[in-house]
Amino acid sequence: PTPYILPPAPHALNWSLKALHRLLVTSRAYRQSSEPGAAALAKDPENRLLSRMPLRRLEAEELYDSLLTVAGRLDETRGGPSDPLDVRPDGMVSVKMGDNGGRRAVYGLRRRRTPITLLETFDFPQLNPNCTERSQSTVALQALQLLNSARMGQLATAFAERVRREAGEDSDRQIEHACRLALSRAPSAEEMRLARETRSRLETEWRKQARKPGAPDSGMAALTGYCRALLNSAEFLYVD
User: Fold this and answer.
1) Does an H or E element contain 145, and which?
2) Residue 86: enclosing H or E segment and its boundaries?
3) pLDDT of residue 130
4) What is the spatial distance between Cα 77 and Cα 116, in angstroms, rounded to a whole number?
5) Cα dist. 237→21, 92, 183, 219, 226 in Å?
6) DSSP secondary structure letter of residue 56
7) Closest alpha carbon to 222 in 158, 134, 160
8) Residues near 47 by Cβ (< 8 Å), separated by ≥ 6?
9) Following CA atoms 134, 136, 141, 146 in sequence, which dihedral angle do they give, to the nearest 10 degrees?
């Protein structure tokens, strides 16, 4: 086994937080996979010895920013006043998006009475008490929020438009590009087969509604459904 080596003291890094972060994220422990081997499970079942990377869900702000980024709707404008909120009669609260999209979660206006719904659902700390440690819950409302909310519908549509714009009209290229954008990898052969079959069924269902007023293009609607599924996947939501 490799002997444990003490990290350099902060003063050796000139008290630079950036240098300290670089040291942490490039360390061997941080870059481990969260998938354990048989030997690691036998010797370290509770991962107390850091034999593998703990599986971690994206925090609320990370998820929010990732959704905007993948959809191509992240406005990178920095500074200035907070972005205003859109408060619906049913209680849904979201940050208003401009012509260039939405800015990072840190720029959304914070009010105790109207917390941003997506952030609150994914355990954003409350503003009233002093928060020393974040909690992490797993509740049905999280899945429903990602699947059914109007904002997620907008982002899924923007994601599909980005894929079509960057990958062209070829269906297989669209599937591969969407997977690379959302999951940072190419789809496997089995995933390609399932994606082709699912998109084919979705297009068939959307063609049945093609004669109705305002019905969307069947190909675009099917691609949007596939993009929404990627944004709802565990692989998108968790850091492996």
Assistant:
1) helix 140-148
2) strand 85-87
3) 78
4) 20
5) 23, 21, 10, 26, 16
6) E
7) 160
8) 36, 54
9) 90
d(CA 167, CA 110) in angstroms, rounded, equals: 38
% of the chain surpassing 90 pLDDT: 57
**The amino acid at 143:** A
DSSP H or E run through 95: strand 93-95
Residue 3 amino acid letter: P
- What's the CA gap between 83 and 103, in Å, rounded? 8
Residue positions counted in the chain: 240
Residue with tokens 């996947």: 233
> Cα-flanking dihedrals φ and ψ of residue 100, to 5°?
-95, 5
Packing angle between helix 150-167 and helix 218-231, nearest 10 degrees? 110
Longest dimension (CA), the chain: 70
As a whole number of angstroms, the distance between CA 48 and CA 43 comes to 10
Residue 183's closest CA among 52, 58, 8? 58
Quickly state the pLDDT bin for 186 (edges 50, 70, 90): very high
Distance CA 48, CA 62 (A): 26
Distance, in Å, from the CA atom of 53 to the CA atom of 30, rounded to the nearest integer, reads 7
Within a 13 Å sphere around the CA of 158, how many CA atoms are in the beta-carbon half?
20
User: What region, left, alpha or beta, does residue 207 occupy, with left being phi > 0 and alpha being psi -120 to 50 degrees?
Assistant: alpha
